[in-house]
Each structure stands twice: as C-alpha cells, then as structure tokens.
Amino acid sequence: MNHLLRGHAPITSDVWAMIDDEAKTRLTAALGARRLVDFSGPHGWEHSATSTGRVGPVVSAPSEGVIARARRVLPLAEVRADFVLSRDELESGTRGAPDVDFGPLDDAAKRIASVENAAIVDGWGELGMTGIAQASPHEPIPVGDDARRLAVRVAAAVAALKGAGVDGPYGLALGYELWVDAMGGNDAGGAPLLTHLTRILDGPVQWTPGITGAVVLSLRGGDFLFESGEDLSVGYAGHTAESVSLYLQETFSFRVATPEAAIALS
C-alpha cells in the first residue's frame, strides 16, 4: 500500500486499468511544454527538492576554525486535481461497457496539465519557479492580428536566437488561440501554416494549453530543466454509495539554465 491508497477504493483492477488508460490518453495530448524541455525522473514520491548546485553565505559554527554554508535547493511543487466518478459508471466498466463516462477525469487532466504548462512557460512565483518566457532577456515579438504573419514572427524569433549564438533545432509552444491559427491557417503563399512553421523551426509545434501567447525555444538540450518526483498518477480519496472521489497528482520543479535560449511571442 502506498500513499495513493488505491487498494482502499471500491474499484476492480480492470477498471483501474481503464482509468489509468484514460488519464494517460488525455495527459499525453495536453502536456505540451514538458516535451520541449529536458525531463529528469521520475525520482519518486519521497524526492522533495532539486539541487541548484549553489550554496548560501558563510555562517559561523560552534567550533573555532570551522565554517558552514547551507546548500540551496528548489522545493518540488506538489500539485493535485480532484475529481469524482459515478459508481454506476464504474460498475458498467466491469461489465465491459465501452462508453464509461470519464468526463470528470478528463476535466481534471486538462486542469492539471494547464498548470504544469503554465509553470514551465509563464512561471509560478509562489513556488519559486521562473518560466521560460519570463526569464528570456530578448524583447518579446508581437504576433499581431493576422494569423498569416505568425510564420514571419517565428522566423524572426529563430533569427534572434541564432544571432544570440543559440543553436537549434527549435520548438514552438502555442497557447489555445495561436494553436487554432497554426492548425487552420495558411501562410501568405497558401501553404498550410503548420507545415511552414515546422520547416522554419526544424522542430515540433506543441499545443500547450494554459499558457499565454507563445514561446520559441532551443531544443539543443541543457537550457530548460524539468525534474519530476512523482509523475502524474491517480489516487483514491474516499467514496460514498453513489460516487468515488479520486485525484490526479504529481510533484515537479522547473529551472531555466540558459535564459537567452528562448524568446516569447506576445
């Protein structure tokens, strides 16, 4: 028995497998930001902090000729999204129903993925995480109202990164509205906009729900560091005669090692 307490839930192993499959499907689609950064882990539920490789100021020790310095760490964020499933629906799953209503799980997956994406791109000051767009020293490039100009703006961002000595390939994280523009639009020459963007970047364009605007970043490695303690998992909180209370949970930290390796599109 671990901290997720799944063994206490009135859920069969087959239905647990259905829940896990549904969560994986929804999260894989929505966790766009982590695909563009260096991922380390998962290191386990007990892993609580990321080493920064730095120390604090010298302090005195209770013995002559001895000094001490505290090592600086970045605590992992513990993030949780609760949801409730109908026991009738779960029991239908035990009978082989192919259309079990996992709507509340899908909503929780969207919410927690949006939080992770936003932490990586826009930052989470309360938890000491600086986002990629926040950290960038480059002036943000305005996209404007014409979706056809998005490719030109992305090309300008790539040129700015190359000018700063940051090699590619590059990736592009897009919020909802710009993603719709990229998927449904054409560039000025009539080609699908998404095709043009991937050629400019020599890398992926990722749907990244939860972020504001967009960011172009280098995928050369070593610049943006995501550390996972417990990767996203489904846990059990309680149940009644009608429903089961569950949650999605993860722990993670994020650091920007090379701020100049990204540029925001505003």
TrEMBL record:
The secretion signal range is: none
User: Species name for this entry?
Assistant: Leucobacter chromiisoli
Which compartments is it annotated to reside in? Encapsulin nanocompartment
InterPro entries per record: ENCAP, Encapsulin_nc
Gene Ontology CC annotations of this record:
encapsulin nanocompartment
Q: Which Pfam families match?
A: Linocin_M18
Assigned protein family: Belongs to the encapsulin family. Family 1 subfamily.
Keywords carried by this UniProt record: Encapsulin nanocompartment
Question: Which protein, by its recorded name, is this?
Answer: Type 1 encapsulin shell protein
